[in-house]
Amino acid sequence: MAMTDQMGRTGMLAVLRERYFSSPGNTILSIICFAxxxxxxxxxxxxxxxSAVFSAAKGPGACKAADGACWAVIDARWQLILxxxxxxxxxxxxxxxxxxxxxxxxxxxxxxxxxxxxISIIWIGGFLTFYFLMKGGIFGMTVVxxxxxxxxxxxxxxxxxxxLVGMPLSILLALLRRSDLPWISGLTGIIIDSVRSLPLLxxxxxxxxxxxxxxxxxASGDKLYRAILGSALFxxxxxxxxIRGGMQGVPTGQEEAAKSLGVRYFxxxxxxxxxxxxxxxxxxxxxxxxxxxxxxxxxxIIGFFEILASGNxxxxxxxxxxAFVEVYAFIALIYFAFVxxxxxxxxxxxxxxxxxxx
Length: 358
Description:
Keywords: Cell membrane, Membrane, Transmembrane, Transmembrane helix, Transport
Family: Belongs to the binding-protein-dependent transport system permease family. HisMQ subfamily.
Helix content: over 70%
Strand content: under 5%
Membrane topology: Multi-pass membrane protein
InterPro entries: AA_ABC_transptr_permease_3TM, ArtM/GltK/GlnP/TcyL/YhdX-like, MetI-like, MetI-like_sf
CATH class of the largest domain: Mainly Alpha
GO molecular function: transmembrane transporter activity
Distance between the termini: 30 Å
CATH superfamily of the largest domain: MetI-like
Number of helices: 16
Number of domains: 2
């Protein structure tokens, strides 16, 4: 074992020597680059940790006198960033609702639950639990109107609702797009291409502001749900093309063989076509999930207090107006945690499925 470790270290040293120190010129250039990199790392660490102010006990004045970051604004305003306008005494409900979504996501990532019935139960059950925790009205919980939702919980609600509504719709659109009837496939193609040709912001604005003018009062609903419906339609249009591309990667002989054996259409789609299509479209699907989560920040334009709007309020009121960099860095870290975890899980799935093919 010791000999193997020594050989590994020797091999690494040889690679480093070949790449960075193979000649006097490369050696000088490498030293300069490493020195610049070390300076950048030290400057960032000094600003973010060593010279930073973490406690809000001394107020904003301590931050102004310090040379580093003012993380005290996070200490003072973290509840506003995470929970928005949600009633202070009910913050436990908002935090528990976010935990429900995390548990729902973790369960969805376990291979044991990878079937249509289990995934449906997990997502629908988790979503309903999230909704009733946020909304209240049952088990003695006070009702909290959607206009008072905000922060991270609203961002999570928008993302989960968009995926929950948009994914079945995307499957339906993909199947209609490949229909043998020209007028069905053509009309579906027009719908998909029309939605994809519009910016998401335009769709959100149309569903949130314009749609009530053309609908009766009883059908207009709440602005949040109209905007989520527009976001789900936008997600479905892109995801439908991703799924259709995955379907095109499935050999046509498999479906023809199933037809010759008398397998019904529903079973051909459920057990033969869609599993392979999702496997082929996995990288693009994970990428679409990441994009959808980041696009929740656009809801600030139509007046919703999601996490970015909550961050703006955190430094935009009181004496913390100078600490906007720290607030945005904290919000960026939250986005990074969600997106990076999702991308790493996608990479794990790709490796797992590649191994299954060998």
